Amino acid sequence: MLLSDRPGPSRTAYVMKMYPRFSETFIVTEILAREAQGEDLRLFSLRPPIDPRFHPELARVQAGVTYIPKPSKILEAWGLLGEGLATIPTFGERFAHMLPDLLAMDPTEAHQGVGLAAEFARQGITHAHAHFGSMAARATAIAAELVDIPFSFTAHAKDIFHEEVDAAVLADLMRRAHHVVTVSDFNHRFLDRLASGADASVHRVYNGLELGRFPYEDPAPRGPVLRVCAVGRLVEKKGFRYLLEAVARLKADGLALDVRIAGGGPEHEDLLAQVRALDLADDVTLLGPRTQEEVVAVLRWADVFVAPCIMATDGNMDGLPTVLLEAMATGVPCIASDVTGIPEVFDSGDGAPTGILTRAGSTADLVDALTYCASADLTGMARAARQLIESSFDSVEQARRLRELQTGQGALSSSKGS
Description:
Layout (H helix, E strand, L loop, with lengths): L11 E7 L6 H12 L4 E7 L17 E3 L6 H14 L3 H13 L3 H17 L3 E5 L3 H13 L3 E5 L2 H4 L5 H10 L2 E4 L2 H10 L7 E3 L21 E6 L8 H13 L4 E6 L5 H10 L6 E5 L3 H10 L2 E4 L14 H9 L3 E4 L4 H4 L10 E3 L4 H11 L5 H14 L2 H13 L11
Parallel strand pairs: 1-2, 1-4, 2-3, 4-5, 5-6, 6-7, 8-9, 8-11, 9-10, 11-12, 12-13
């Protein structure tokens, strides 16, 4: 009997390339919301964690984590095949049928897909969901076919926009998946074009927030120094170098700023050198990585939050930064660039602005936006932003929608989801 034929309650696998990962708080929030609604989840990671710090919210996750071995020797790979044969009744027949496709894949992904299938069989998984339409989704597709269960995945940003993405492979994954989730209408349109002609079921479901963890406060009265914060990995697509250029111009014009950037990443030394070259050592602080609680404290401190995202030279872009949603939820007035899904959250639908939109890579736009924030009353904008977050980005609603898609109850609704 195959897993999909077995009676009993459903059990969902969540498959990630690496879990936990310090920068992927949105996955933890999603898991917590689904567990809170009574779903039985199991977590699977293809790589062990490497981050030295972890968010406290991880302790609230009930599901256990299974790490799938990455074979480095022929004997280890052979052992994974033996596990598949021992645990999956129809393994030999299905593996033989899949072999031509498997031989065209990365051998590590193929073998980890087999190892994942064996664990699905042992743990009674009835549906598998992967985060990111790359390694995790490809391994999950192999495992799901071997044990005959449906699979789905969430497409975010680097997994669809990066120059190394194989569009044909991604389109084939979309066709084979029970459904595909993505985190913005921009992404949804992009994937629809990519899968043109394929029978793919794509749905927009925004990343959610635990709203109780981000209570709203009206913007506090500003002092003589404009307090600016930005949060994110220190990578090209975050566009922090443009923020530093804007700060230098504003300082030259006589505007006093205190800028704090939270996050770690490969551009740390380059940004630090830029701070020194622009004579901003007394104005800009690189805080390094911060937990969600620490990020909330930085947001509470700030007069304005800036997300100056751009398209990186390799095509990589942000999908829709979670920290932007967190800033909007807490009442911090926000400036962000017109990349991917960001314009969607700066439109309340009733004409009330929820943020200040700038052109990606425009230092002049950032200068104008920060100058405006230094003197304008932004309370109305902050309140409108909070209302939008409550109506469209609640993790409780996100979990309900994901469950509907998995069980087929969402099939009759709009492909954009809610």
